[in-house]
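S.,

Sequence below, as promised.
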Amino acid sequence: MRYRRDDVVARAIEVLDAHGLDALSMRRLAGDLGVQPGALYHHFTNKDALLAAIADEILRRGRRPAEIMAWDAEVQLLCLGLRDAMRRHRDGAVLIAQVNRADAEALERPLCDALERAGAGADLAGVGARTLLRYVLSHEDDADADFALGLGLLLDGLRQRLTPGT
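The prediction came back faster than expected:
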């Protein structure tokens, strides 16, 4: 049977959820799909490419619809959406952090854009986005109330910096 790229990614997410990131290999995934490992290289040049596709799909599934809203509500929704996406899958945060270490820009950009729309300069928007992203990636296992409190503290600090005359 021939599998489409999307089918392979979907099955890889199932393997990730069932067995964790350390157990996810091209060989194991091929076995689960009933194909030779070489068949996967038709869709992915290597395991890193597969992991990137899995991370992208996890993040895509976690995106919330865009709405016109205040910058801080948008940033909060982006952070919660990322956290929800990571928590939905076993080792999701580890995978996303590992894959996006080299290309954190893709995760930071929506946060940075929201901060810039709020009036932040490039430096504040960049540092703010990186700080928020690092918070989400390192606190996904916190209790919901603790996570919300920490995120609120970060947003309060950004609001102070964005308020004219402070």
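The mean pLDDT is 88.

Coffee later?
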